[in-house]
Amino acid sequence: MELRDIEIFLTLAEELHFGRTAERLHLTTARVSQSIKKQERVIGGPLFDRTSRAVSLTSLGKLLRDDLLPAHRQIQRAVDRAAAEARGITGTVRVGYTTPWCADLALQAGRAFSDRYAGCTVLVQEVQFKDMLGPLRRGELDLQLSELPARSPGIADGPVLFREPRALMVPAGHLLARRDSVSLEDLAGVPLIRSDGGLPESLIDLHIPVRTPMGLPIPDGPAYTFWPEIPALVAAGLGASIVAARAARYHARPGIAFVPFRDGPTLDYGVLRLASGQTPPAAAFVELLADLAS
């Protein structure tokens, strides 16, 4: 069996779908089918059961898959290490994040990156909103997973990795907490908790607007220094905060409720980096992040 045929077999064993296998390997469905038939002739038995509705591995196919996978992974790691060395992908990639869902993606990518590029180490750390762009500017980080857009001199952003619907975090006893959804116009009746500095202006407009789309003023709530203060302030009935909808899964606690917005833009999350350029390891890490996010 040639290496390409092994790759086709293992991909089909994972996908169990000829069309998806062809798309993933940038081949035609006919090429995938021909390769599998050739392998079955060489081995002398069927590797897959095929019907009009489903594809499944035979017992012979499962045996071959289990025997081939470790060797194929070892070959792929050897190729990746050689390619990494040729591209200068060695050393340490320092990655920051501002939300727990960005942390999840950064840590997942870090594990995959270290496995793919044995000569690289990935360090992941939290960045506080009070000094959101400071670690990047000071060269303490190579890149950062954060809210976009973060327009600021010397900082480049993109790609966008995922887009989140917004929600309003309100005190559980507030009238808005009883609704199925809220509008941006409803913000005229609730004070928003403010940042005491550190956020780029482009993000302040998204997170802490001062007027509704119709021009009504939005009251000011208390200011926070670190984000964990916000749920406590909301639970105390001192204000509300615009958050990503998935914050309900990460920050639920007594005294607060999360109500989705039915209008307004999404909250976008992606990569921030210095506009002056990035190292080969950092560029490769961004490519991996985009693959995982998609």
TrEMBL record:
Keywords: DNA-binding, Transcription, Transcription regulation. Signal peptide: none annotated. Belongs to the LysR transcriptional regulatory family. Residues 1-58 form the HTH lysR-type domain. Coiled coil: none annotated. One of its GO terms (molecular function) is DNA-binding transcription factor activity. GO terms for cellular component: protein-DNA complex. Gene3D superfamilies: Periplasmic binding protein-like II (3.40.190.10), Winged helix-like DNA-binding domain superfamily/Winged helix DNA-binding domain (1.10.10.10). InterPro entries: LysR_HTH_N, LysR_subst-bd, WH-like_DNA-bd_sf, WH_DNA-bd_sf. It comes from the Bacteria. This is DNA-binding transcriptional LysR family regulator.
